[in-house]
Write a structure and sequence with these properties.
Blueprint (H helix, E strand, L loop, with lengths): L2 E9 L5 H11 L3 E13 L2 E7 L2 H12 L6 E4 L5 H14 L4 E3 L15 H6 L8 E3 L3 H8 L6 H15 L3 E3 L10 E5 L2 E5 L12 H14 L4 H17 L24
Parallel strand pairs: 1-2, 1-4, 4-5, 5-6
Antiparallel strand pairs: 2-3, 7-8, 8-9
Helix pairs in contact: 1-7, 2-3, 5-6, 7-8
Length: 265
Amino acid sequence: MKTALTIAGSDSCGGAGIQADIKTMTAHGVYAMSAITTLTAQNTTGVTGVMEVTPEFLEQQIDCVFTDIFPDAVKIGMVGSKELMTVILKKLWFYQAHNIVFDPVMSTTSGTKVLDDSALEVMKHIGLCKGTLLTPNIPEAEILSGVKIFSRSDMVIAAEIISNEFSCPVLCKGGHDENGANDLLYQNGSHMWFYGERVDHLNTHGTGCTLSSAIASNLASGMGLVLSIENAKVYVTRGLQSRINLGKGNGPLDHMWNIGRKERI
């Protein structure tokens, strides 16, 4: 059985973070493991509390996974501080991890900032880990590149800057664009577009976590990068189209749409 590790924060309402990652990996038939960076008290309306684990404890979690069930892919999500980022990169280098998908979470859907500015400099070394894909959304790509994105050509420029800066392929996600949900992959000096349907409703909590976890799951299963992205976009779109309605704010998508459900009496 193929395996995947998520290194990310916990979302107490289950729509994002490691909870979304584990659901997504399971729905893809991949055995999911986790190393938690941060505990959050949150729901669909916002975040009320954040508590980081210590670097030492994060290191113990990662060691326990790699020395027992070596992951076929690694997804990295919310990493709040320079110290935690340093531990993650050190361990990924040490264990020669591969198929790494890094979703650079900088703020929550509700707008709460969750990334320390000092962590950005450490994050720039992520490209030294082989097989890494960076998956920023448009606001994150603007921060990472220093370029304001108003058009498709701006996305290309920003992705090129980020790819050169971080020394890895970049998937710039277009879900924040009101005119579509088209993503741009930039790697090795060239780019390609992945066109997607925009599903217009508020229940989008955890879409970034879900997409990156789906890509990691597909890579773990042996798919190439392009096919992994294509299939992950289909999975997320179908999860949004399911239109489950949970919570009083930005609710989650349906991570389990592809798993049969028995009717309840």
